[in-house]
Amino acid sequence: MKAHKIIHFCAKTMALLGGIVLCAVIVVVCISVAGREAADFAHTDYMGALGRWLLERGLGPILGDFELVEAGTAFAIFAFLPITQLSGSHARVDVFTARLSDKTQRRIDALWAIVMLLVMLLITWRLFAGLQDKHRYGDTTYLIQFPIWWAYAACFGAAVVACSVSAYCAALQLLGKPTNAE
Known about the structure:
By secondary structure, this protein is mainly alpha-helical. It has helices at residues 2-42, 48-56, 65-87, 102-137, 148-175. Helices cover 75% and strands 0% of the residues. The radius of gyration is 22 Å and the shape is elongated. The protein starts with a helix and ends in a 7-residue tail after the last helix.
């Protein structure tokens, strides 16, 4: 089935992109923390002229590190949603449903797949509205001044994929077919 392969490819690609961005966020945090510690050490009397020289050349934390972390983490979260939905890996509490029949459990799963689709559609719609507002008003981050709409656009793209995957999973659940079969 061609649609099945496309959905799996999109979900896996988004997860890979999310993982790359999350790794980049981790590197930014590590470099920034190391730079902050090095700058603190450079301010001590032990470093003297060498410390002042290093500080003049930019030794310190990454400017706007928290802005980069915020945008990158938001994208990573949205990027992981499609593969999580496709594989059925959302957190679930089945204490009350574990003893129900398979047919009832499938119906409950179908209900939650539809709820997930509706929630993703709502989030995607509001992300698009936010994207339009941030683009129209030219909002930028405080320190590094990158346009906020870039982060909204990245999250919106990932949310569109999540909507597509959620719709696919809901359709499969309603048809009584597994969603995570390759």
